[in-house]
Amino acid sequence: MGLVVQKFGGSSVGDIDKIKNVAYRVIEESNQGHQVVVVVSAMGDLTDELIALARQTGPNQSEREMDMLLTTGEQQSAALLAMTLNNMGCAAVSLTGWQGGVATEQVHSKARITDIKPDRIEKELTQNKIVIIAGFQGLSPNGEITTLGRGGSDTTAVALSAVLKADICDIYTDVEGVYTADPRLVPDAKKLEFVSYDEMLELASLGAGVLQPRAVEFAMQHNVRIQVRSSFKMEPGTLVVEGGKMESNRIVTGVAHDLNVAKLALFDVPDQPGIASTIFQALAEASINVDMIVQADMRDGRNDIAFTVCKDDLHLALPVVERVAKDIGASGTSCGQDLAKISIVGAGMTSNPGVAATMFAILADENINIHMISTSEIKVSCVIDAPLINAAINAIHKRFNL
Amino acid sequence: MGLVVQKFGGSSVGDIDKIKNVAYRVIEESNQGHQVVVVVSAMGDLTDELIALARQTGPNQSEREMDMLLTTGEQQSAALLAMTLNNMGCAAVSLTGWQGGVATEQVHSKARITDIKPDRIEKELTQNKIVIIAGFQGLSPNGEITTLGRGGSDTTAVALSAVLKADICDIYTDVEGVYTADPRLVPDAKKLEFVSYDEMLELASLGAGVLQPRAVEFAMQHNVRIQVRSSFKMEPGTLVVEGGKMESNRIVTGVAHDLNVAKLALFDVPDQPGIASTIFQALAEASINVDMIVQADMRDGRNDIAFTVCKDDLHLALPVVERVAKDIGASGTSCGQDLAKISIVGAGMTSNPGVAATMFAILADENINIHMISTSEIKVSCVIDAPLINAAINAIHKRFNL
């Protein structure tokens, strides 16, 4: 007999019919003789509706009060799933984050889990109950209700899996697994049987979006086996596991893309220590998330620095960049919209030096101009014109035999 | 500087505009230099909506899971009111029942408060914050979230008032106070300046419905000054206080009525110990609430027993009564619908023996037949035909000079 942690996101528990579907998945696992711990998110759009209500109260919402408000969503889903299971003849009990022993830092809206005391969960499991935990939430040392940030239910599920030594952490979602590319853009994209934690991290942060990066990091650190699978289909999904367990001959695992990209540049920035810090500190103070950062070759002791932000943040970033450019004596600035980022990810890249060059060649063959390049050990990202993204993904997907 | 506890029901926090109205009432009290603790119910129809969702999960809902589900409603209102106050420049913090230290029995859906540990509330008050408590809920010794039953927010407010030694517990509602009769039926019904706890208890249980009877009992035991007042108007409401503080020359305080009445009778019941117990035990086992019970004069060692139930319960009560009638050898049964109960309430009745007779005379003058009579120390109730209730109330209201 094993122990399985199942996590169901908001779209999987959007109404009572969907919650009944979830209950069948839970019972199926239980009927195989496993102990089952279920982590649920808030129903469908409830979190967004609560945020809209909160905004009606005035311009400011304290993060503490937002946490008080939003955590009710997961508590509702958990109770409704427990009732549904009970009505199907299956003993089940719902627990809030604090009842489940989820302890976090004294931080609101994006707390980290510091510990999980599983006493209550284990007590309920030994009484042969399905245990349902409200995801996304915990309790701070000061007795405050905290949240783990958007998608935090993934982190709850993975952390519980680590503490309870679960055999597997099944993340149920509305896609069937992790694909070699977005199946909506690439008709012959394939579902991957395995990805490594590193690959999943790059894919997640690059917009493949099926799993929270923090949850993947946690899983990697605590060696939790994750499976990404469909709430609505029975087939196995994609296993996220240690790199060593993977097929070693796979160089590129998948192609990810992100259409929400804007580019900013500062020209002729003085080549002095602290200049980059000045620029990006100013952006951080304005709460602007910077993604890729590229510094071009030095000419006469001066540099160009370019970086990307979310499209939505461009109007916030632009005045900051213009102010900083003036302060530090840059010769000018530029910005570009209607851009996209395309990335190849693969743990095999480290030992295959020609991969980046192959990617650039494929894009050149398609007459696609590259605006920016950034690389990591297992990833190569290029910024290109947004209208060309479809051609780029399909060409790369085909030429790397994904 | 005093301490005021304010309680706002569901209709007072039905949407954000109403919550803003509540915030003004809170700030007004705070501006007078008082510390303010606010108890809120769930928004408008939210509790009913959650119950409807729960019913969709199947025929049965465990009380424990219902408590998990329903307590989210008050938590949401509390957080939204805190945000609203913050946006008006007023420091405020929302607390769940367990954060506010509200301890209850290990019972679900109708737990009693066993203790309130006000440490957290007092800490927040000393930091000059308005403290908002989610009403209707507490924490059991086993760490379970419990509820106090419908209208339990009144009890939360009164219990907090007792523990915090509040100067007053203001119960804000959609009526302006306690009236001498229902103002919708009696145009010249007057708002009472004072009622005694006893009178309020009788008025509450007789359908005047502005205050939960349990809350009034609690207030009486702990000598909490309650004021029933309007959420939407500024005038003072009705003070519920010790009998000794009342105007002593008032014999009848008010006329209450209840249109939700059905009558059942068993004829020729054997006059033996245990017979009444057999009848009402059977009804209790069927979860039927019995209101008035009247046993008629003995004839030849046999009695008639009549009682009233809610109209809605009549179809449940009838088969029980017929079965019991057969078992105990009663000669027959009868039932009556389309009935109403009219009651006069007044602490002065005990020392004025003619009050009941006057009431019967008034009804006789109006040609109103009385089907049942029941009296207590401070109340006389009569069951009459429902269509005559308006005439009865107005006649009694006028003749007692209310």
Describe the structure.
2 copies of one chain form a homodimer. The two termini of chain A are 37 Å apart. The first copy, chain A, is of the alpha/beta class. Helix content of chain A is 36%, strand content 27%. Chain A has an 8-stranded mixed sheet with strand order 3-6-2-1-9-11-12-10, with helices on both faces. Chain A has a 6-stranded antiparallel sheet with strand order 14-15-13-16-18-17. The relative contact order of chain A is 0.10. Chain A folds into 2 domains: 172 residues, Acetylglutamate kinase-like (Carbamate kinase); 145 residues, VC0802-like, CATH 3.30.2130. The first copy, chain A, contains 11 helices and 18 strands. In chain A, β4 and β5 form a beta hairpin. Chains A and B meet through α1, α2 and α3 of A and α1, α2 and α3 of B.
**In what range is the share of β-strand residues of chain A?**
25-35%
User: What's the CATH first level of the largest domain in chain A?
Assistant: Alpha Beta
Shape of chain A: globular
Order of helices and strands of chain A: EHEHHEEEHEEEHEEHHEEEHEEHEHEEH
How many structural domains can be distinguished in the coordinates of chain A?
2
Identify the quaternary structure here. Answer: homodimer
Radius of gyration of chain A: 23 Å
- Per CATH, the superfamily of the largest domain in chain A is Acetylglutamate kinase-like
Low-confidence stretches of chain A: none
The DSSP helix count of chain A reads 11
Name of the CATH architecture of the largest domain in chain A: 3-Layer(aba) Sandwich
Distance between the first and last residues' Cα of chain A: 37 Å
Biggest interface, residues from each chain: A-B, 39 and 39 residues
Instruction: Going across the biggest sheet of chain A, name each strand in turn.
Output: 3-6-2-1-9-11-12-10
Mean of pLDDT of chain A: 88
